[in-house]
Amino acid sequence: MATYRIGIGSFNLKDGAVGLGTESSGLGNLKVEGTFKTTDLDITSGIATFTRYAGFAPDNLGISSDIVLSGEHFTTGDIVVGVNSTFTVSVGATVDVGTVESVSIGTHFSPPIGGVEDRPEVPVEGTVRFNKDLNTLEFYNGVEWRQFTVSGSGGSRCIIAGGYGDVAPAGQRKEIQYFNTATQGNSQYFGDLTDKCLPDDGAGNETRCLIGHQVLSGIEDHIDYFAMSTKGNGVDFGNLSQYRFRATSVSSSTRSLWCGGKTPSTVNTIDYVEISTIGNAVDFGDTMVPVTGAASGMSPTRGIIANGIVSPADPYYTSEITVLTIASKGNSVRFGENTWNGGYGDGGSNNTRALFAGGYDHDNKRNQQRISAVTIASEGNAINFGDLHIGKAWNWGAGTQTRGFFGGGNAFPSQVHYNVIEYVNMDSGGQAIDFGDMAVRAYAAAGITNAHGGLGGY
């Protein structure tokens, strides 16, 4: 049997069949083994191109059709997957990319799974995937899948939803507004909720916004959701565990919780949903005391609840701050005291600090103008942080890793409503700065960003 060298390796010719990298002729006209790669291979059988059955080339590997790899593979070059092609690494296989500089993916990439002994369904820590359901790039941190977002660089936006409008007596609204948090300017129309509502507080993560309703009937348990990154109308998500209003909410990257509220009696209910799914909220635990009209902030692990009207001495305003662990079910516990006694304000946070602003100051019988701050990881009393331009109640609040936003509200108990949006730098205190105006002035509206403190700044 003769052996011929043609530049890309050697092939054997026997009984009219060609075998590359093998002593046997193989099956059919062409059998390939080893680490061969070619383009425009012109032989009498009509084969013009082929992709190797196993192994990677020491330089670039181009995939122009579907391929499944098993066993161990190594490359020091780039992996390029063509459009409409699939590159699948089977269970138990390994890919050592060596000093590879880039991986170009066409339409689909299935990464290796199986990083824990006897648990092949657990991904390897650091694995990156593209979630086709949510259109997001995600990485596995050893515990859960987290989504990549960019905070403070023009990639985040703030959502404002629902609330009482600017007509006296005010009518409830269903408009959704938004603005980009890294710039300054007015909010723009986003879409509509499924009904008019007074949500008081927003919830969500990097990709989804969730709005709990109070509608014209006064008390409602409906939840809407919509994508943060695109404009559009709200869609039915499910229901809260009970009919109530004036609840506050906290969120992580995976969960949204609604805390307290009125049925019309003040309640201590905490319920939650998994953001990436749809369905009804389930029981989480209880607030330390029944509370309504509270403000909130969050880190990736903790939710903070501040101020509000508590029961049984309803209406009795409180300065108390409580805390809960978002990842585990349970009751909120004491954290400390806010700098004032009242309710109907709101909060904004990054992953280390929560700010509270606005609301009705019960002790001084006026609407609150000051901004207070707490460090979420530690327990203790709030400190003075700065001031809004004017005292207001029923305002909304939201935060990113770099900025805290407060807007809307009214001159409670009058029917004068505000449309001003203000912001502060999360790292430094002082007077709030004018950001712009709301497209529709409102109070008791929901505010939330897709880069808030519960997301951890990834």
What can you tell me about this protein's structure?
The structure is a single chain. The chain is mainly β. The protein folds into 2 domains: 1-49, no CATH class; 157-455, 6 Propeller (Neuraminidase), CATH 2.120.10.80. It contains no helices and 44 strands. The model is unreliable at 1-11, 43-60, 99-103, 105-116 and 150-154 (pLDDT under 50).
Write the layout of secondary structure elements.
Blueprint: E1 3-5, E2 10-14, E3 17-20, E4 30-32, E5 61-63, E6 67-69, E7 72-74, E8 79-81, E9 87-89, E10 94-96, E11 103-104, E12 109-110, E13 128-131, E14 136-140, E15 145-147, E16 157-161, E17 173-180, E18 188-197, E19 202-204, E20 208-212, E21 220-227, E22 235-244, E23 248-251, E24 255-259, E25 269-274, E26 282-286, E27 291-292, E28 295-298, E29 302-306, E30 309-310, E31 316-325, E32 333-343, E33 346-349, E34 353-357, E35 360-361, E36 366-367, E37 370-375, E38 383-387, E39 393-399, E40 403-410, E41 420-425, E42 430-431, E43 433-437, E44 446-449
Parallel strand pairs: 3-4, 5-8, 6-9, 7-10, 8-11, 9-12, 38-42
Antiparallel strand pairs: 1-2, 2-3, 13-14, 14-15, 16-17, 16-44, 17-18, 19-20, 20-21, 21-22, 23-24, 24-25, 25-26, 27-30, 28-29, 29-31, 30-31, 31-32, 32-35, 33-34, 34-37, 35-36, 37-38, 39-40, 40-41, 41-43
Short synopsis of the structure:
The protein is mainly beta.
Tell the overall outline: globular
Which consecutive residue ranges, at least 5 long each, have pLDDT under 50? 1-11, 43-60, 99-103, 105-116, 150-154
Could you tell me the number of beta strands?
A: 44
CATH superfamily of the largest domain: Kelch-type beta propeller
Beta-strand content estimate: over 45%
